[in-house]
Amino acid sequence: MNSEEHLQHGANGHAIPPQQDTSADQPDTVNAEKVEISQSGVQTVNAEEVTISQGGAQRIDAEDVVIMQGGVGVIEADSVSIQEGGIGVIMAEGVDLRNASVGIIMGDEIHAQDTRVAFLIAGDVQGNVQTLFDNKTALMLGAALGVVFSLLNWLLGRNQSSDSNS
Asked: pTM of whole model > 0.90?
């Protein structure tokens, strides 16, 4: 493929590079230096720069990712910027979120505004972020679950040994 791909909404609703027939299925993988997706989707993107506007991808592996009103399953990048989007997992050094929802974020520096995150593991967090589990609560949850499973294991082991003595 070219070093720059512009994917747009085709006649069948799938992402297609301009040089391809509009009857083509959704591309499995797009490899390019710069990828732009508008009102469409793709399974996997490997690029230096990725921009998505009202579209989505299952997985993105890139240096810089910008999403405006889109969704992605997994992003692995140096820098991620999302405005009004939903993401499953983000692994990045720098993340900038505006009105976004994310399942899991693992990053060094997070800047957020009106954002919801289930699991947040980050070095520095600035802004308005609602988290279900952050670094501290995840550690406390892990410790609590460790105690519960240890007690259950001890109780079950004790019941089995008393049943074998009878």
From this structure: no
